[in-house]
Amino acid sequence: MTLAADELTLERAWLTDLEDEAIHIIREVGGQFERPVVLFSGGKDSIVMLHLAIKAFWPARLPFAVMHVDTGHNFPEVIEYRDRHLGRLGVRLVVASVQDSIDRGRVHETPGQSRNPLQTVTLLDAIAENRFDAVLGGGRRDEEKARAKERVFSVRDDFGQWDPRNQRPELWDLYNGRHRPGEHVRVFPLSNWTELDVWSYIEREGIEVPSIYYAHERAVFDRDGMLMAVTDWTPPRDGETVRSEWVRYRTVGDATCTGAVSSVAQDVSAVISETAASTVSERGASRADDRASEAAMEDRKRQGYF
């Protein structure tokens, strides 16, 4: 067997190990909780997590609801994909709207600023209203320092807050979902995956993702070291020059704080090659909300952000 064949065999075995671990975690949720929900943003991680959840219970239908916390400032390609993909799967979609939270006075929008921080209140309200006791998300430990601190089962108190100093041991893949009334548990089945693992799995499984993950020509401008798309919510400011460039998105979030990267990768194999060569995580390269401070993500997670 050649070296290349050996490496391919090892890669396939590694992906299978990751898949088995994630399915085990998801089934643990099904066995320990009464009202779980899968968070779905239309991003690659949540797409893979939903794919795994469906596999975990096949041929039965997915026994969990699916929830999207919608800022109202999403890329249209992502919303089109969400509605089409979830409609095809036949799952129950709950849309928690930041705009509704603004209209009800639960949060207050600052003109010209991202709605991303406002998602926390919307998320916690939706969890309480629907009485969800387990919330599955696609967070990975390689994304950001605060996410590297998380356990797979992460308890949130009755205010939805996270205490990184008060977490349970998870020896021998044993997960403790015990929680008091009013508390809930965040669950991260992709904790041990990397961005490269996610893309390799997408290739192996033939999973469709939104078109903006692949290189396309788009009107962009430079802002704070990122390539921002021209949208209704991100018009160029004085001195910002718009140009047409071939770009793709490494992560999908609110359009006001998510930057593109220059790219010619128009298919999965090309994206995998680019990802393997990258030395910066996708959040570090293209998420403005993580640049507010060294502890920006941890501060938000303590308040209830995912």
Topology, please?
Elements (H helix, E strand, L loop, with lengths): L2 H30 L3 E4 L4 H14 L7 E6 L5 H14 L3 E5 H6 L15 H12 L3 E3 L8 H4 L4 E4 L27 E4 L7 H11 L10 E8 L2 E4 L13 E6 L12 E2 L5 H10 L4 H5 L9 H8 L3
Parallel strand pairs: 1-2, 1-4, 2-3, 4-6
Antiparallel strand pairs: 5-6, 7-8, 7-9, 9-10
Helix pairs in contact: 1-2, 7-8
The number of distinct helices, counting runs of at least 4 residues, comes to: 10
Strands, count? 10
Radius of gyration, in Å, reads 19 Å
Q: Spans of 5+ residues with little confidence (pLDDT < 50)?
A: none
> Which shape, going by the Cα principal axes?
globular
Write the element-wise H/E pattern from the N-terminal end onward.
HEHEHEHHEHEEHEEEEHHH
Can you summarize the main beta sheet? 6 strands, mixed
CATH class of the largest domain: Alpha Beta
Strand order of the largest sheet: 3-2-1-4-6-5
Question: What features would you describe in this structure?
Answer:
This protein has 306 residues and is an alpha/beta fold. It has 2 domains: 3-197 and 295-303, Rossmann fold; 203-290, no CATH class. It is 37% helix and 15% strand. It has helices spanning 3-32, 44-57, 76-89, 98-103, 119-130, 145-148, 195-205, 268-277, 282-286, 296-303, and strands at 36-39, 65-70, 93-97, 134-136, 153-156, 184-187, 216-223, 226-229, 243-248, 261-262. The strands form 2 sheets. Strands 3-2-1-4-6-5 form a 6-stranded mixed sheet. Strands 8-7-9-10 form a 4-stranded antiparallel sheet, with no helix packed on it. Helix 2 links the parallel strand 1 and strand 2. Helix 1 crosses helix 2 and helix 7 packs antiparallel against helix 8. The model has no long low-confidence stretch (mean pLDDT 88).
